[in-house]
Input
Amino acid sequence: MPASPTAPAPRRSQAERSSATREALLEATIASLVEDGYASTTTSRVAERAGVSRGAHLHHFQTRQALVAAAVEHLARRRSEELLRAAEQLPAGRGRIAAGLDLVWSNYASPLYQAALDLWTCARTDAELRGHLIEVERELDRQTLELARRLFPELADRADFECLIEMSVATIRGLALLDTLHPGDERNRKQWAFCRARLVQLLEGAS
Output
């Protein structure tokens, strides 16, 4: 018997095609930032990597600065959702604070954070990029506090809760900077273990 003809794939709407193009541009930008750095992440290179035309690129993002800021925000939102899901799986009781700190550490001890550092450094002398990243930073702060409330619910009602979390994140960010020049160094791992123990003592004492 002859094979039945394959039904044609349903035609995507204009909105679906536009959304897919935007997603491809954001993913290509993230990959370029991680692999090549901000200086080499040009709009033409991103469009080529994403497999879209220059015109399609400009339809969504008129400048490189707007594109990379949107990509960072896109990545941060996705990563925040992943971390929130992971937080739900952490055990209650003793050990949760240490496990929660390790979860936050994993978010910063990564090539993605190194790429973000590159952007923040370039923003010092790029007013347009800085303007975009200030808005992204506000959203990142909001996401960090939401994650912290899920990780450490017993601390969330304290008046100094935000200060405790900001200090913990600042410590983690500072240690993660060491990976810029010494990725995977054993010394970095030991320093994180030492600082985590001190942070656990502080947070457990506050609970």
